[in-house]
Amino acid sequence: MSYLSYKTPPTGFNYTSTGESQYQVHGLALCRGDYSNASFFGKNDIQNMFYAWSNQNASDPSSFNAKARKLLRELAKQASESPKMYKSGRQRIGEGRTIYGLARYNVFNA
Questions:
Q1: CA 94 to CA 44: how far, in whole Å?
Q2: Torsion over CA: 92, 73, 40, 14 (sign)
Q3: Contact 93, 64 (CB under 8 A)
Q4: Long-range interactions of 67-72: CB distance < 8 A, separation 24+
Q5: Contact by Cβ (8 Å): 38, 30
Q6: Could you tell me which of 25, 20, 34 has the C-alpha nearest to residue 4?
Q7: pTM of the model
Q8: When comparing pLDDT for 45 and 29, which is higher?
């Protein structure tokens, strides 16, 4: 495993294998400031979540939800194409109103 962390590039992601046949070992590294050395292969991360909200209600919840979904879909697409596999962004939704989003892409979720 030290080989895997040593070979992980600045993008913070690496997947490699070593050995042959029944002696082959696979490794996956995702280096970000919000992770420990805990195993994350094939697991959904539900501990590193946070929510931010406003005390104000959306005047048009259907429109707000559609814009939030659109933002998150776009961020997910960008995250899947990013070497660091995450993307953050914001979308203005009206006069002085902005929504924020963050997406992380993990191709190895089972």
A1: 34
A2: negative
A3: yes
A4: 67/91, 67/93, 67/99, 68/99, 68/101, 71/99, 71/101, 72/101, 72/103
A5: no
A6: 25
A7: 0.56
A8: 29
